[in-house]
From TrEMBL:
Enzyme Commission number, as recorded: 2.3.1.201
PANTHER family, sorted: ACETYLTRANSFERASE, ACYL-[ACYL-CARRIER-PROTEIN]--UDP-N-ACETYLGLUCOSAMINE O-ACYLTRANSFERASE
Pfam families: Hexapep
EC category: transferase
InterPro entries given in the database record: Hexapep, Trans_hexapeptide_repeat, Trimer_LpxA-like_sf
Family: Belongs to the transferase hexapeptide repeat family.
Name of the protein described by the UniProt record: UDP-2-acetamido-3-amino-2,3-dideoxy-glucuronate N-acetyltransferase
Signal peptide interval: none
Organism of derivation: Parabacteroides faecis
Length: 191
């Protein structure tokens, strides 16, 4: 038996799978066929649209709508009032419900408050999208991006700290001590 908790004002439609220890707060709506992992926190006034898949320990802050076509891996953080999209050229009079574009958010990535994610791209694992950014491109793993349109201004560790690479392409996270290598424009954790 599932042990998730939902506030009495939350609405959960049929056919959803919700993992143990997930919490769903006031006035949120989980639509049909969603899969939500364990230990997630779904804040207030959140909409999770049909068939959305969220991994484990995903934190969705207040006022976020996660639309059909969006997938989030484990440990993703969706900041307050960030905005996804799933149609690139919406028209009220043209039905494009069979043309939803996909947006994938990789493990451990963070989307800042009020950021807008234009559909059809992947946000790489552990990328950090600054508050208010407008993402219009693929975002590499560990990238730090800000602005409208968003531009990469650096790299961040899995703990969310700036990484400053030396001449050999090596950097150390000041909090975790984890080591990273920047090679051929890509960052990997090496220890
Ligand atoms: C992007 C972010 C992580 C950068 O933090 P940082 O590494 O400490 O960066 P700094 O504050 O040193 O800023 C570096 C530069 O980027 C700019 N900048 C920082 N955040 C920015 C943002 N969100 N949008 C546009 N520019 C930004 C700064 O003005 C500064 O510009 P400058 O070099 O011209 O002076 C942080 O500002 C941010 O937006 N965090 C998200 C917060 C959030 O949404 N939390 C949600 C949960 S409450």
């Amino acid at each position: 038996m599932a042990t998730f908790q939902a506030h009495e004002t939350a609405v959960i439609d049929p056919g959803c799978t919700i993992g143990d220890d997930t919490r769903i707060w006031h006035f949120s709506h989980i639509m049909s066929g969603c899969t939500i992992g364990e230990r997630c926190n779904i804040g207030q006034n959140v909409v999770i649209s049909p068939e959305v898949v969220l991994g484990n320990n995903v934190k969705v802050q207040n006022n976020v709508s996660v639309y059909t076509g969006v997938t989030c891996e484990d440990d993703v953080f969706l900041g307050p009032s960030c905005v996804f999209t799933n149609v690139i050229n919406p028209r009220s009079a043209v039905n494009r419900k069979d043309q939803y574009m996909k947006t994938h958010v990789g493990k451990g990535a963070t989307i800042g408050a009020n950021a807008t994610i234009v559909c059809g791209y992947t946000i790489g694992a552990y990328a950090l999208i600054g508050a208010g950014a407008v993402v219009t491109k693929e975002i590499p793993p560990y990238a730090l991006v800000v602005g409208n349109p968003s531009k990469q201004i650096g790299w961040v560790s899995e703990y969310g700290h700036r990484l400053y690479f030396d001449g050999d392409g090596l950097a150390v996270c000041p909090e975790s001590g984890e080591k990273y290598l920047l090679k051929d424009g890509e960052v990997v954790r090496i220890g």
